Structures are given as C-alpha cells and as structure tokens.
Amino acid sequence: MIFLPIKNKHKKQNYFHLDNSKAPFFSILNHQYTSKSFILLIKKNKLIEAKNFISKAYYKDINLSVLKEFFNDEYLYKSLDKVSFYINKNEKINAFLIMDKNLKFKGIINFYMINEPDNISKWKIYKITKETTY
C-alpha cells in the first residue's frame, strides 16, 4: 500500500520547524502562533509552559498569578491574523480581540514580540497591553 502526501493549501510549512533529534521536537516560527499558543497555555492553567514564550530579559519579572488574572476565563480571544505591526524586522506587535461569550467586543490585547529564537519558538513576548471597554 502506498500513501501519497496530502497537500493542504491552508497549512503553510513556515509556521513550524520539525526536529526529531531533541525535545520538544518542533519550534514555532510564526509570531502569531507564538501568541496563540501562549493564550492557550494560560487558559489551560499551564503557566510554567507559558513562561517559555516570554523573553529571557523579562522572564524573572513575571508573576504567574497576575498573568492568569490578565486572561479572564469568561472571555474569548480572537486573533487578528492580518493585523501585525512591524516596529522593525526584529520586533512585531500582534493584536487580539477580547470578546464575551455572546461575541460582543470587550477590548484589544497587544502582544509585543521580539525575535529571540530558542528550541521552543522564534519569537518571544516582552510586553502585553490590554485596552478594554469594561
């Protein structure tokens, strides 16, 4: 039996880098997937893993309990994939909409990212700001 590779137009190869020689076996190359992964880990209460996406210069200053409160479980976070601001080639800002369960707009979260590659991700978060309507 022969299995041919499946082509998927929606999945681009430049989002992840696979490497089976050492754990974690892949790294996230895209800055938008770094922030999405960060929010997912926070919402799953995996705060130690989420800190892997923080820049090493700010890693020691992060308070995990404040970080958990920052991302309220009652709200949904919708990535604005087409909205990404480039400060320069090594710094980017990603925007996320904050919405309640009824999809009513509640604000925006901005992730300030810096190009600081390691075996987890290429981009690291150095600042998060929240602009809310509530």
Provide the structure class.
alpha+beta
**How many individual domains?**
1
By DSSP (H or I, 4+ residues per run), the number of helices equals 3
Question: H/E element string?
Answer: EEHHHEEEE
- Approximate strand percentage: 35-45%
Residues in helix, %: 10-25%
Distance between the termini: 58 Å
Q: What is the CATH first-level class name?
A: Alpha Beta
- Name the CATH architecture: Roll
How is the biggest beta sheet arranged?
4 strands, antiparallel
Evaluate the radius of gyration: 16 Å
List the strand order in the largest sheet. Answer: 3-4-5-6
Poorly predicted tracts of residues = 1-21
Mean pLDDT: 76
**Overall geometry:** globular
List the SSEs and their pairings:
Elements: E1 16-18, E2 26-28, H1 31-43, H2 47-50, H3 64-70, E3 76-88, E4 91-99, E5 105-115, E6 123-132
Antiparallel strand pairs: 1-2, 3-4, 4-5, 5-6
